[in-house]
Design a protein that fits this description.
The protein has about 325 residues and is of the alpha/beta class. The protein is about 25% helix and about 20% strand. It contains 11 helices and 13 strands.
Length: about 325
C-alpha cells in the first residue's frame, strides 16, 4: 500500500507546531505535534487577521470533516503548550475530533505517588482536560508503540527517569539561550571542538517519536529531546546492522539547538530532509554549528518554516564553500 506523506510546519514563532497527514488508499491518519505559542492559535496583536495558523488548520479540518487522530504535546515549555492551551480554552475539542492525546503530566511511572503540577500552564491545561472528562495518555516513554492501518509510531524518548524528574517538578522555565553569530562561516564552525550545553528537565522529558508508514517510509519527530536519549532510543528499536536508518524527514530537536545535537547522530540516521522550526526571535535558534555539520557531512536538504531565516543564517562565503547549498536549502 502506497502512503502519501503531507507535512505542514506551521509558523509558530520560536515554537513548534507540526501537522502530519499519512494518506493511504482508503485510510488517513493525522498527527498534530505541539501547538506553538498563544498567537499560533489566536493572534490578538493582528487585528486584520487574528486567526493564527493553528486555528486556521483546525477550521479547515472541520470543514473537510477530517480528524486529528493523534495530538502530541511533547513537553510543557511555553513555545509548545500555549497554542494548545489557547485552543482548548476557546474551543474545547470533542473526543471525536481529537481522538487520542499524548501529554505527560505529574503522574510518575512505576509509583503510586501523584504530585501536583507547579507549572501554571501545564496544570491549567490538565484541569481543562479533567473538567471536560477528556481522556488522555500520560505515560509516554520509550517502548510505547501505536499501530494503525497506515503507520507504526514508536516512542524513542524520554526515558522513565527523565519523565519522572519532570513529573516531580514542572516549575522550571526554559533557560537555553545560545549566543550565536551567523556571520561565522559553516567551514569555521567545523574547525571548533563540539560541545553540548545543558538542558532543562522539561526538554529532557520531551516526547520523541519515529513514525513508519506501512509503505516503509520513516519520519523522526524529536520535540526538544536530549540527544543521547534519542540515540539510546534508536538503538532500542533498531538492530545494529540497520544503522544508519533511512528517514524521509527528521524534525531537529529543540529548533536546531547545539545542546540537543551531536555529530555522532549521523552514525544512527540518514535523512533526505531536515526540518528547522523557529523564527529565531528568541534563544537565538537555530544554531549554525548544527547546520554546518548537516551541510558538510550529509547530502540532506534543510527546510525552514520561516523562509526569511535563510537570509540571516548563511553568508556569501557559505555559498562559495558549498556550491550546492542554495539547492539544498528549502522552505515550507
Amino acid at each position: 500500500m502506497e502512503i502519501k506523506i503531507d507535512i505542514k510546519v506551521l509558523q509558530a514563532g520560536y515554537g513548534d507546531c507540526i501537522f502530519i497527514s499519512l494518506i493511504g488508499d482508503t485510510d488517513e491518519f493525522n498527527i498534530l505535534i505541539d501547538g506553538g505559542l498563544r498567537a499560533t492559535y489566536n493572534n490578538v496583536y493582528n487585528r486584520r487577521n487574528p486567526v493564527g495558523p493553528l486555528k486556521a488548520l483546525i477550521c479547515e479540518l472541520k470543514e473537510q470533516q477530517r480528524k486529528i487522530d493523534l495530538l502530541i504535546l511533547t513537553h510543557v515549555d511555553d513555545d509548545h503548550i500555549l497554542g494548545i492551551k489557547e485552543w482548548f480554552e476557546h474551543d474545547f475539542p470533542t473526543a471525536d475530533f481529537v481522538r487520542c492525546f499524548w501529554v505527560n503530566d505529574d503522574m510518575e511511572i512505576c509509583t503510586t505517588k501523584n504530585l501536583n503540577n507547579t507549572s501554571a500552564n501545564a496544570s491549567s491545561l490538565l484541569k481543562l482536560l479533567q473538567d471536560n472528562n477528556f481522556q488522555y495518555s500520560n505515560q509516554i516513554v520509550k517502548r510505547v508503540t501505536l499501530e494503525n492501518e497506515v503507520c507504526i509510531i514508536k516512542v524513542i524518548a524520554p526515558s522513565e527517569i527523565y519523565h519522572n524528574r519532570i513529573a516531580k517538578d514542572l516549575s522550571s522555565l526554559l533557560n537555553n539561550v545560545a549566543d550565536d553569530s551567523y556571520q561565522t562561516s559553516l567551514k569555521d564552525y567545523l574547525k571548533k571542538e563540539w560541545k553540548c550545553g545543558t538542558l532543562t528537565d522539561e526538554n529532557k522529558a520531551s516526547i520523541a517519536i519515529e513514525i513508519e508508514t506501512k509503505s516503509g517510509e520513516r519520519l523522526l519527530m524529536l520535540g526538544d529531546a536530549e540527544i543521547q536519549d534519542i540515540m539510546d532510543g534508536l538503538k532500542m528499536i533498531h538492530k545494529e546492522n540497520e544503522f544508519p536508518v533511512e528517514y524521509s524527514w527528521i524534525k531537529l530537536s529543540h529548533h536546531c539547538s547545539r545542546n540537543n545535537f551531536h555529530p555522532a547522530f549521523f552514525k544512527f540516521v540518514h535523512a533526505n530532509n531536515y526540518i528547522i522550526s523557529t523564527n529565531g526571535s528568541r534563544f537565538h535558534h537555530p544554531d549554525k554549528d548544527v547546520i554546518a555539520y548537516i551541510i558538510d557531512q550529509t547530502d540532506s536538504n534543510i527546510y525552514f518554516n520561516y523562509p526569511e531565516m535563510v537570509r540571516y543564517v548563511f553568508t556569501e562565503q557559505d555559498y562559495k564553500d558549498y556550491p550546492q547549498l542554495e539547492s539544498r536549502i528549502k522552505s515550507f
